[in-house]
Structures are given as structure tokens and as C-alpha cells.
Amino acid sequence: MEPEDVLALVRARPWAGAPWARELVDSFPGRLRAALTRWELRMVRAFTDGAELPVLEVHGRGIGPAVLKLGGHGTDHDQQVRVLRAADGRGYVRVLDHAEEIGATLLERLGAPLHATASAPEAEVDTLADLLPATWDLPSAVGEPHAPSQKARSLLALVDGALEAPADRHRPVLEAARRLAVALVEDPSPRQVVLHGDPHAGNALRRGAEHVLIDPDGFLGEPEYDAGVALRDHQQLLDDLERREPGAARRRHAALVARTAQRLALDPDRITAWAHLERVTTGIHLRSLGWASEGESWLRTARLLLL
Q: CB of 158 within 8 A of CB of 285?
């Protein structure tokens, strides 16, 4: 694999032609070549899951299989590295090296993602729930400072932006999500820990017999937020359940919430609110990046659970 092959993958991203992405795309070849030269790396393959820049499996002199990640596309790469180094492999992927000046990091090579190996949604959410306490135990000084209501306010702004579009067929879902966001803004939790920020099953990868998390956001917030994100997915399962039996999707989601709340000793109502709000705002975000059908899928599932 050559740098030109990876640049083609970057340019194929739906967001690559957006004005805000111009500098990111233009600077990518130079940053990639600098990283390959710095660590004397050979690229083996690219992972294109997710919405960000491709992540690369690499080999190098004195370096076995590893992963090269270049920051960008809305992520605070240095903050990710700060969290990973503080965790030192406990519950998180290990950092092998980091080049701050080019926003590039070498990480240990992990195995398959949780969504590819979990036998059922219950097994998936149990694994994520068991990983989260280690992330919350990190010293608060490691986390990016956030006001207690800041995350809810940022999601409220996304919903309000979507509501400004005329004749959006998902308007009832957006209005329901807005009510949840306002309630969370007005009643923030006093408990603030270092959150992962996006603990879904694609961000939990196998290391031997266990799983560890990758790609932390690392901001301060309430634990129920992370738990809600962990319960945000399962669109296909919920859609299929609802087709077979009206109301079944809500019941299954409520059971997963109750299971996770009990496992982590958290507030099930707040987990539910964050899960619904994250499901809606993920759909909004994907639509804004050019993944229209994926965004619609998230919003359709949200409709089953909210209306």
C-alpha cells in the first residue's frame, strides 16, 4: 500500500469536499509521509470504519504489527493521547509513541471489534459496562474541563440547528430530543468523571481474552452519559423487533437500560435520556457529513423509541 492509495481513501470520504475539510485533506499526504519516515514504517492495510481519517496497520524496523493514527476531523488528538497514556493500558489501547508536531500516534495492534464477536446485544452492553469504570477512575486532572451541563448544551445546539431546516420529516423526533436535552441542561448531575465519550462496540477491540477501548474523547461529565452512548446502537435489532411486534423495540431497549443501570449502579432515567439524545444527534451528525442514508437509519430507529 502506497501513500497515494490512502489519500484516495481520504478523498472518498463524503465530507472530503467540504470547505472545513480542505486543510485537513491537503495536509494529509505530508503528515502521512512524515510519520512513515519518522518510524520507518511500511503500510499493510487501511481500516476505514468510522467517519474519520483512515487508520493504518503498519510494520517497521523494531516495531511489530502496530496501528498508525493521524488526528483530525474534529477530534482532539492530543487529548486522546493524554487519556491513553494516563490509563497505561488499563482498559485502553497502549500508546507506543506519539509525534505531537504532526498529530500522529503509534498504537498497539488489537484484534476484532466487539460488535463482530458479541453473541447478543446483552453480551455487548455487559462488556462495555464492565470497561467503563476503569475509564472513570482516571484522575480528573486528565479530563478536558467541561461545565456539568456543557455536553447537553452542545447536543441541544445540534438539535436546534436541525430544527431550523424547513419541512424535516423527522421534526417530531427532533422536538422530542430537544425536550430531553433541555431537561438535561436544566438538571446537570453533580458527579463528574473522565468519560470515554464514545464507548460503542466498534470502539472496544479484543486484546487476548479481554477487550479494551480506543479513541477516547476524555472530557469531564456524568457516568450516565457514557452508559447512554453504550446503549445508543442496535438499530437493526430494534427495527426488526418492531416489524414483528409493535412495541417490542421499546421493551428491549428498556430492558437493556435496566440491565446496564443495575450493573453500574446508575440512574436508568438519565441513561435513557442520554441514549435517546445521542441516537438522534448521531443521525443529525451523519447527515451533515454526507452519510444521508446512515443518518436516516438512526433517526428512524429513534422514532420507534421516542414517539
A: yes
- Domains recognised in the chain with CATH numbers: 3-108 (3.30.200.20), 114-306 (3.90.1200.10)
Who contacts 267 (Cβ-Cβ below 8 Å, separation ≥6)?
224, 261
What is the residue-level pLDDT of the chain in tens, covering all 307 positions?
899 999 999 999 999 999 999 999 999 999 999 999 999 999 999 998 878 899 999 998 888 899 999 998 667 899 999 999 999 999 999 999 999 999 999 999 999 999 998 889 999 999 999 999 999 999 999 999 999 999 999 999 999 999 998 878 899 999 999 999 999 999 999 999 999 999 999 999 999 999 999 999 999 999 999 999 999 998 889 999 999 999 999 999 999 999 999 999 999 999 999 999 999 999 999 999 899 999 999 999 999 999 8
| Angle at alpha carbon of residue 178, lines to 176 and 184, rounded to 5° | 110
Residue spans of alpha helices (H) in 171-222: 171-186
Whether the pTM exceeds 0.70: the reply is yes
C-alpha cell at 244: 414483528
Taking residue 108's Cβ as centre, other Cβ atoms within 10 Å add up to 17
121 touches 240 (CB < 8 A): no
Grid coordinates representing 14 are 463524503
- Cell numbers 487476548 correspond to 208
All three cell numbers of 19, joined, read 470547505
d(CA 279, CA 155): 11
Torsion angle of alpha carbons 269, 273, 276, 280, nearest 10°?
180
| Phi, psi dihedral angles at 266 (to 5 degrees) | -120, 170
